[in-house]
Amino acid sequence: MTTATQPNVEQLTEEKVQFGGLDGRRRLTKEQYEGLQQEFDALRDEIRADLGQADVDYMKNIIRIQRYLEVAGRTLIHFSFTPVPFMLGVAALSVSKIMDNMEIGHNVMHGQFDWANDPKMHSKNFEWDTACDAGSWKRTHNFEHHTFTNIIGKDRDYGYAVLRLSDETPWTPMRSFQTVYFALLSIFFQWGVALHELESERLRDGTFDLDEKKPYLKGLFRKGAKQVFKDYIFFPALAGPFFWKVMLGNAMANLGRNLWASAIIFCGHFTEQAQAFTEEECENETKGEWYYRQLLGSSNLSGSKLLHVMSGHLSYQIEHHLFPDIPANRYEEMGPKVEEICAKYGLPYNTGPFWHQYGTVLKRVWKYSFPTGGQERS
C-alpha cells in the first residue's frame, strides 16, 4: 500500500472550524489530502484484485437463504392456526425481506457483483421486494447520494427532505413536528424511499415539472401496484376465508423490514457525529477531499456477524461510502485498515453499538426540531 506523508497533528488541531452546530472538524493540507487519496485508492485496488469465486459463492448462499426464509415465512403465515407459528412466519418473512433489500438488493444494485457476469447478480437486471423501482433508486441513491454525500442542497438523502439535521437548513414552524415525521418515515420507509425521486420540496416551492417526472411516476405506480397486489391481494386471496390473517401477516413483515432498514440507514447517516457540508466548501473538490467528506459524513455500527449481514454490511457505512462498488462482504476486512488510516491522519472513525448510535440519531432529530438546534440547550 502506498505510504503517504505523516500528517502534522498540531497543524490539524489548529485548523478546527465550527460548522452546523457540530464539533469543529480537522482540516488537512493539500499534500495530506493527496496522501489520503493514495492510501484509500491502494486499499481499494488491493481488495478488488482479490475478488473471486468465494465472493460470488457468498452472495449465492445469501440469496438461497433469503428464498428459503420467504417460502417458510409465507407457508407458516398461510397455514398457521395459533399465534406461535403465525409469529414465526411473520419473523421469517420479515427477515427474508430485510435480506432481500439490504444484503442482496442494495449491494447488487451498486454493481458490486457486475464483474462476476452472472445475470442474477447484475445491477442492470435486479429488482427487489420493495415499493421503490430499482431504476429510480439507482438514480437517486447511486448517483445523487454517493456523489454529493451530506452536501446540503445536493444530497436529498440527507434528511429525506423532511428532517432538519443542521443549522444550515432553515428552521420553519413545521420543523417542530419532525419527530412525528421521523416516526412516520420509519414506519412507511419503503414508500418514503419510493417517493424520494418525486422531490416533494419542488411541489412546495412551485418548481415541480410534471412532464419531467412522468417516466418516474409510471415506474412508481407500476412497482407500487405490484407490491400491493402481491402482499395484500394475491397471497391473502390464496388463503380464502383466512384472507385477513395473511394480509395482516404480510403487513407485519413489511413493518418489521421498514423499521429495521430505516434504523440502520439513519444510524449510518444521521448520528450526532455525522457531519454535513455546504456546496461552497465542496466546489472543485479533489478525490482526496471526497474521501475526507465520506469519512466525516458517515457512522458505523459495532456488533456481531449477524448484525453485519442483516444490515447489508451498512454497519460499515464508512467503508461503503468510501468504496460503494466493492462487495460489502469485504468491508469487515477493510474496516481495521480504514480505521488505521484515519488514526494516521487524525481523522475520526465514528463507530459504536446500535442502541448508542440510534440514540444519537433520535437526539439529533429532536434537537434540530427547535430553531436553536445547533446551540447548546439547557
What's this model, at a glance?
The protein is mostly helical and 378 residues long. It is 59% helix and 3% strand. It has 15 helices and 4 strands.
Model description:
It is a single chain. The protein has helices spanning 9-14, 30-50, 53-79, 83-108, 134-147, 178-187, 189-194, 200-205, 210-238, 243-269, 287-296, 305-310, 317-322, 331-344, 354-367, and strands spanning 17-19, 22-25, 300-302, 351-353. The chain is mostly helical and 378 residues long. It has one domain (25-367). Strands 1-2 form a two-stranded antiparallel sheet. A two-stranded parallel ribbon has the order 3-4. A hairpin with a 2-residue loop joins strand 1 (17-19) and strand 2. Helix 4 crosses helix 10 and helix 10 (243-269) crosses helix 15 (354-367). GO terms for molecular function: oxidoreductase activity, acting on paired donors, with oxidation of a pair of donors resulting in the reduction of molecular oxygen to two molecules of water. InterPro entries: FA_desaturase_dom, Fatty_acid_desaturase. Residues 91-351 form the Fatty acid desaturase domain.
Which word captures the global form? globular
Task: Give the strand order, joined by hyphens, for the main sheet.
Answer: 1-2
Number of helices: 15
Name the poorly predicted regions: 1-23
Provide the residue-averaged pLDDT: 89
Distance between the termini: 48 Å
The major pleated sheet works out as: 2 strands, antiparallel
Number of strands: 4
Structural class: mainly alpha
Rg computed from alpha carbons, rounded to a whole number of angstroms: 22 Å
Helix content: 55-70%
Give the helices and strands as they follow along the chain.
Answer: HEEHHHHHHHHHHEHHHEH
In percent, how much strand structure appears in the residues? under 5%
Count of domains: 1
